Amino acid sequence: MKDYFSIGEISELTGLSNHALRYYDKIHLVTPAIVNEQTGYRYYSYLQLFTLDWVRHLQSFGFSLDEIREILSDVSAAALMRHLEEKQAELEAEMERLRVLRDTVSYYLAYYGGLGQPRFPELPYIRQEERRFLFTERYEPGEAIHGTAGYRLMARKSRTEYHDLYFLKRTGYLLDSEALGRGEVIPLEYFMYLEKPPRENLPQVREIPAGEYLCYRCRLLSPEADLSALRRFLPENGKGTLVMASECDYSLDDSIQAYERLFFEVQIRL
Questions:
Q1: pLDDT given for residue 23 in this prediction
Q2: How far apart are CA 59 and CA 53, in angstroms?
Q3: Residue 195, phi then psi, degrees to nearest 5
Q4: What is the Cβ-side half-sphere exposure of residue 122, based on CA atoms within 13 angstroms?
Q5: Distance CA 14, CA 118 (A)
Q6: 67: which of 45, 48, 63, 104 fits an S-S bond (Cβ 3.0–4.6 Å)?
């Protein structure tokens, strides 16, 4: 059995490039057992084969070279366990992030896929909804629907205390039901959907209960919008009735005129 191996032999045995081996030497991660002072040739011991294989193994776990150097500096099982437990926690957090990302992509596929289906704006329908969560911003008294509530919401959601919320790119309005009964669209709150419930109660987050909702699609913000059909679905006085209007259209045109042509799905809680 050979006691020492040249850098070329080590490269062939481990799959590590000569460049990587020289870099490991430079950063004092794994230094050759022998360096010929006259030729500069590097030679690695038989046992260093296993050290280098362990380096590759740790890299496959996602450890950085700095972390691997720290692991190799303390070869006790207790130290290795500590590093592995920390890595496990990191991987679990990343898996959760990817799960949420996958679910969000699935949500958008279903949502935007449904936009191409035929619309029948004049026909209401009833749908059973699951519990939903909205990140909201209240309108000031008398503030127009195209006021600054959307800007205020965007500014608020960028704050540090909301960084762990998962926002969906879907917005809408909570409407004054009494005003809607009179044929007026008066917003009470601007909202953005959340992908999942927050971990704690937050004043900006509103829970929309599960249940049956009467749904009606229309160009809610169009000056020519006919709201008479909506009015007959509201209770006689309409006061306190939950009415929400969610975007159910897609356009890259950011003009007010294009926005007013978008379809909204108005939902009235039954």
A1: 94
A2: 10
A3: -70, -35
A4: 1
A5: 60
A6: 63
Measured at the alpha carbon of residue 16, what is the angle toward residues 14 and 20, in degrees to the nearest 5?
A: 145
Write out the two tokens for 146.
């195209």
d(CA 265, CA 259): 14
241 CB-near residues (< 8 Å, 6+ apart): 177, 234, 235, 268, 269
In terms of residues, how long is the chain?
270
Q: Helix axis angle, 7-14 relative to 46-60, nearest 10°? A: 40
pLDDT at 124: 83
pLDDT(223) > 90: no
Instruction: Report the C-alpha gap between 15 and 52 in whole angstroms.
Output: 10
Alpha-carbon dihedral sign for residues 120, 121, 125, 127:
positive
The helix (H) or strand (E) run that includes residue 194 is strand 187-194
State pTM to two decimals.
Answer: 0.66
Is 134 strand, coil or helix?
Answer: strand
Q: Alpha-carbon distance 71 to 67, whole Å?
A: 6
- What CA–CA distances, in Å, run from 171 to 65, 92, 99? 44, 31, 23
Q: Tokens 């490991």 appear where?
A: 24
Phi and psi of 146, rounded to 5°?
-95, 30
For 154-171, write each residue's pLDDT tens digit. Answer: 999 999 989 889 898 889
Q: Which helix (H) or strand (E) holds 174?
A: strand 167-175
Dihedral sign, CA of 104, 105, 108, 110? negative
